[in-house]
Amino acid sequence: MSCNSCNSKTSGIPKGCNNNGNCASGSCGTFTVFDWLSDISNSLINPFKIVEIRFKNGRKGYFRNNNLKVSGGDTVITESEKGYDIGVVTLTGELVKTQLKKKNINVEDELFSLIKLPSEKEIDKWQALIKKESVTQTRARIIAIELGLKMKISDVEFQADGSKVVFYYTADQRVDFRELIKRYAEEFRTRIEMKQVGLRQEASRLGGIGSCGRELCCSTWLNDFRKVNTSAARYQKLSINPQKLAGQCGKLKCCLNYELDTYLDALKDFPKKDVKIKTKKGIAILQKTDIFKKLVWYSYKDNFMEWFEIDIKSLHKMIEINRSGKEVSSLEDFSIQKAKDNSFNSEDSITRFDKTKKRNYAL
User: How far apart are CA 291 and CA 247, in angstroms?
Assistant: First the structure.
């Protein structure tokens, strides 16, 4: 996903455009789809008449193109419910059909159309409204606090013609907007629209850096928010720590689902955690599981400090012996090797740093 200015140097290192996310061609934007059929689409006699347009914070729409010559990265004026809006072309040609199927949009549905390419005056007006959004958001938050409403104005978006402003907000409970909309209409002198977004949608719109050091998945490529449960962390043997498992949205991290299927497949070979082994030396209880190495660690109920490493095949043999009504001789007979004792080791005392090391200075 890059424009022509992101080609590589002779050494193979990407040169980049150094625009830091504000790509002039629009091909490095949020949720951008690389048009690998661009050459084929341009050569078609009758190209697909619907194009994809990106607006603020990755919001996209699909519009009919009535013989207007546009390509990826062009700024165009589009129709809206009342007035017009300005966006950037992100996708044209045959790949738009695939995107429409993902969004469950029928090609025969009524869609708004592209109007024209904007003039310099219209671009200046649009940029002025974008600069005004931060000031509007601050004032909107102050008004909401004065009215005592339990909500948060997370983002503001002006329509390009200035006829409408959309306030994106998050709230845990239902909010009465009657007085709020009156105050907003008096303050901003335009048509007001309120849109509630979830905490994950808010993080997606605002963006940020995750604990992994990369940009948030929801603000770069993840376009569907699947349900994440704490069971996903338990299956992956992660400690149930809300501070570590929660993302910037305050919900469980979406990445907990990425490797969950692999762990579930690997756990099919393992018995349940509550399976106990009856031996002649006593009952053995599961202490630890390594699903990728196919190993388990068991200890006697009377001695939790001494663990025995057992492979999965030996574990199933012991379970079959117990099912037949017999007791296993001992864990030692099936153990690969005795695990190291967790007790204090005198060799690891702090005085070991006092020992001087002999250095060989011979050449």
Answer: 26
Lowest mean pLDDT among 42-56, 103-117, 237-251, 341-355: 341-355
Strands 60-64 and 303-311: unpaired
Residue 179 pLDDT level (bands cut at 50, 70, 90): very high
In a domain, 232, yes or no: yes
Q: How far is CA 152 from CA 208, 289, 324, in A?
A: 18, 44, 63
The average pLDDT across 42-67 equals 81
In a domain, 103, yes or no: yes
Burial class (CB in 10 A: 0-12, 13-18, 19+), 239: exposed
Owner of token pair 């194009």 = 51
Q: How many domains does the chain have?
A: 4
pLDDT tops 60 at residue 7: no
Other CB atoms within a 10 A radius of the CB of residue 316 amount to: 13
CA atoms within 13 A on the CB side of 312: 14
Instruction: Tell me if 183 sits within 8 A of 136, measured CB to CB.
Output: no
* Predicted pLDDT of residue 22: 42
> For residues 274 and 324, what is the distance between their CA atoms, to the nearest angstrom?
19
Q: Is residue 4 part of a domain?
A: no
d(CA 6, CA 236): 38
d(CA 39, CA 81): 34
Q: At what angle do helices 120-146 and 178-188 cross, to 10 degrees?
A: 140
Give the range of the structural domain holding residue 261, as residue numbers without chain letter.
202-266
Name every residue whose Cβ is closer than 8 Å to that of residue 237 and which is 6 or more positions away in sequence.
289, 291
Token couple for 322: 């117990």
What number is the average pLDDT over the span 270-294?
87
My answer on whether 274 and 233 are in the same domain is no
Instruction: Quickly count: other Cβ atoms within 10 Å of residue 227's Cβ.
Output: 8
262-to-14, 136, 217, 291 alpha-carbon distances in Å = 33, 47, 20, 10
Question: Cβ distance 247 to 253 under 8 Å?
Answer: yes
pTM higher than 0.85: no
Which contiguous run of DSSP H or E holds residue 311? strand 303-311
